[in-house]
Design goal:
Distance between the termini: 31 Å
Largest sheet: 8 strands, parallel
Strand order of the largest sheet: 7-6-5-4-3-2-1-8
Number of helices: 13
Number of strands: 20
CATH topology of the largest domain: TIM Barrel
Strand content: 15-25%
Radius of gyration: 26 Å
Helix content: 25-40%
CATH architecture of the largest domain: Alpha-Beta Barrel
Structural class: alpha/beta
Length: 439
Amino acid sequence: MRICASLSSADDIGSEELGKADMIEIRTDIFDSVPKGVLKEGQTGLISFKGDIVPSMIPEGWIADIGDADSSAAPGRGTISSFHDFSGTPCAEDIVNVMREMNGDILKFASNVNSVNDLATLFDVSRRIDKKHVILGMGELGTVTRIRQKLMRNEFTFAYVGKETAPGQMSVSDMKRLGDYCIITGIIGSDIGYTLSPKMHNAAFAHAGLNGIYLKFDTPSVDRIHEMITNFNVKGVNVTKPYKTDIIGHIDRCDKISERTGAVNTIVNDNGKLKGYNTDVHGIEKAFEMNSVDVKGRRALILGSGGAARSCAYFLSENDCDVTVTGRNTDTVNKISNEFSARPQNRMSVAVKAYDIIVNCIPLNKNNDRSEYPIKIEQIDNNQIIFDMVYGGSHLNDVAKERECIIVKGKDMLIHQGIKAFELFTSVNVPYEVMRDAL
């Protein structure tokens, strides 16, 4: 991996990080001139003009990023022609047309990445531009384009020293540690800023001594997800709301449990073939076990009708529970009930005290609010078992604590499904305490 360290201030100049980079970038919106002695032996300098191009500012041997100007603006110097789209990623054809109009020695295109489809588009462009280039996705979702420098056929990639100079950058040390061939895993969902999975899995990589990273792929659609995973050599991903059922149409095959539940929360890339698994069922089972709850033969009420609810209905029905499902979406409530021999119940008409176990599977909305439960939770009794599968604080848990109910922790489920997923990704089993302590 060839790394260009982008300086964010004069304070970066004395950093030991600079010595780990192959190139140093000086930006004219941060520096008035190139600091003396900033390059170490063997390093290449890059001056990026953010405004007027002043040839006298370019030291001999340095490369100049001249934006969309003609290469004649920096005579006698190597040049990078660059274009940035901060609004989003155009179609591949439009990007290729823009880049082919550039005349620098190296062509650079960077765009804000808003979906996995955008990532697939940038990869397509990297295959269509024969000239030396740097093609990057900006934003958290674009980080994978920075790590996979060689796969993108990029001449180099950028990293920060003190603080990031572009959204999605990683530090020089982290990029140097990861290199081009690290294990990349992650989580795919929509509006998943709250997720704790990266903390758990990155702690597991560190504990196992594996060179890997777990990223967030927050996307409004899973279109071209198969291409994104295989093209960028992503080893595996977890899947969260709202894609646990829809994702099945985008992968090659499923294991028996995910076929039976109709929900996939883990995908493994096996040499370009994507196989779906359901580790949620394992997490649910272990969460009940850890809290000394035997579910067999109990009356259970499930709140919600998405992928997590399907996994829970499967587990409870397999353990001879009498299961009722309620939620906002009547169609999906009825569908789950039919598939798992459960009873559908209209929202807000449930006799809450009739159940031994109440499981909440309703995910967070954009405002991190789960207050609109389909039952009257004030009817909860102190002899009931409450399991909020969506981890974190909630009104349901508050009421359960107040009534001194038996509480099954959502974080236990999260951790155990994560342990199983990490094992599928890496063939390594990490202790429960490793992921727990990371939260």
